[in-house]
C-alpha cells in the first residue's frame, strides 16, 4: 500500500519547500547525490547533479521543460556506477526510456532512488526560455494546467505531451504528486520499500491517502488517450504511402539530431556514420541515372532504419520532433510504428523491468503465421 | 504493352534454401527469373536494412528463405529472422508494403521442388498485385 506524505506550500513557495525536502534527503544521507531540474544561473532549467544542500537553491522540478530526455543522463551516471546512492527526479517519459536502457544494459538502477513527477507536459526549449524571460513561473503553469489550460502567450506544450497517456510516473521509488492534491499541496508518495526507507530517513511523516487523486489521474489520462487516438488516426490516414512519408521527411538534411536526442537509440556507433554509407562517387552517379537523386541521400532509409531499431522501445517522449532543425514532426511516425511493433509482441516500452525486449528473445513454436508453414 | 515482370529480391540461406535452389538447378527444374538471389550465410543475418533498401530501390517483393525451425546451421538464426520479419511487416504495412510483398519461407536443402513452387507462387501473386509504389522509372531516390 502506497503511503503519502503531505508537503504544504504557500503561493510562490513550492520550490523552496521542495528544496527543503531534497536538502533533508541529502543531509540525512537518504541519498548521496541528487539529479534534479534546477534553474541555471544565467537562464534555463536543466537537470543538475548536486551532492550538498548548499547547491539546491535553483530546484525547479515541475518547470515545464525537458531540455534532454533524462534517461540519457541517468545512463551516463550509472553505466559505470559511482557506488554512490543517487536520487533522480524524472518524468514519466524519462523513466520509461530509462527502463528500456536498463534492459539494454546501458544503465543500472542498483544505487538509484527514482523520484517521479506528475506531468502536465513540457514546452519546446525555445518557447520555455521565451516564457521565462517574460516572467512566467512554474506555479503559474501548474495552476493554469490544473484548470485545463497549458497554452500561454501563443506557446503550448509539445505535441508529444498532448497525446501522452502516461501523465503519472510508474516504476519509481518516490512520486511527487500534484494531480488531485489540491491547492497549495504536494503529495510525496512512497511507492516502493526503497522509497519509503528514503523518506523515513529524511524524516517525512506519512498521513492519509488523498481522496480524489485516482479520479484526477483518470480524467487527465482519458483526455490524453482520446487525443492520442485521434492523432494516430489522422497520421495513419494522411501518411499511408512511401510518397507521403517522403513528403513528410522532405526537409531532412541528415543532421542526425533526432538520433542524438532519442533516449532509446541504443547503438554505440550509428551505421549511418560508418563506411557503409560513405558511398563512392560512381555509386551516386549510378543512382541518379535516369532518376532524380535528392541529396543528401539515404534520408528515408535512415528514418526507416531508425524505426526498425527503436519501434520496440519508443516511449513517445517527442524529443526527436523537438530536436529537428527543420521542423519535421517525427514523433507521430515513431509513435504509430511503436504502437504497431509493441502490439505485435504484446510489449509496452517502459512498462516493466521484467518483460524481455521483443527482439532479444525468440521461440521455436511462435509466430507460425509469418511463414504459414507447418511441418 | 508487355506484361509486368516483378522484381523480387531473395535472400537465401547458404545451408538450406540456397542449396535447395542449387538442387532445383541440378534437377533441371525451372522457376521464374524474377527471383534475384542473394546468398547469405543465414536468414538470421538478413538485417532489416537490407529489406528496406531493397524496397526503397524499387523491389516489388522480398523473399527470405531459411532452414526449418530446429534445422538452423547456427541453431536459431532463423527464429531471429522470423521475429524481424514480423516486426518489418508491422512497420512497412503502414506505407503500403504489406506481408504479401515480404515473404519468409522455410525451404530445406532437399526441397528443390518447394523452392520452385514458392518462386512461382510469389511471382504470380505479385504480378497480380502490380508494381510496388516505389518501383517507378522516374522515382526520386530517397
Count of structural domains of chain B: 1
- Class by SSE composition of chain B: alpha/beta
Strand tally of chain B: 5
CATH architecture of chain B: 3-Layer(aba) Sandwich
What does this structure look like?
The complex is a heterodimer of chains A (375) and B (142). Chain A is of the alpha/beta class and 375 residues long. Helices cover 38% and strands 11% of the residues of chain A. Chain A starts with a strand and ends in a 31-residue tail after the last helix. Chain B has a single domain (8-129), classed as Rossmann fold (3-Layer(aba) Sandwich), CATH 3.40.50. Chain B is built from 4 helices and 5 strands; from the N terminus they run βαβαβαβαβ. The longest helix of chain B is centred in the last third of the chain and has 18 residues, at 112-129. The interface between A and B is large, with 48 and 38 residues. Strand 8 of chain A pairs parallel with strand 5 (140-141) of chain B, so a sheet runs across the interface.
Secondary structure: elements and pairs:
The complex is a heterodimer of chains A (375) and B (142).
Chain A: E1 3-8, H1 14-27, E2 33-39, E3 45-50, H2 70-78, E4 86-90, H3 92-103, E5 112-117, H4 125-133, H5 138-146, H6 159-162, E6 174-177, E7 185-190, H7 193-201, H8 213-238, H9 242-248, H10 257-261, H11 281-288, E8 292-293, H12 299-310, H13 319-323, H14 331-344
Parallel strand pairs in A: 2-4, 4-5, 5-6
Antiparallel strand pairs in A: 1-7, 2-3, 6-7
Chain B: E1 8-13, H1 17-26, E2 35-40, H2 48-56, E3 61-66, H3 77-93, E4 102-106, H4 112-129, E5 140-141
Parallel strand pairs in B: 1-2, 1-3, 3-4
Helix pairs in contact in B: 1-4
Key features of this structure:
heterodimer, A: 375 residues, alpha/beta, 2 domains, 8 strands, 11% strand, B: 142 residues, Rossmann fold, four-stranded parallel β-sheet, 4 helices, 38% helix, globular
Gist of the model:
The complex is a heterodimer of chains A (375) and B (142). Chain A is of the alpha/beta class and 375 residues long.
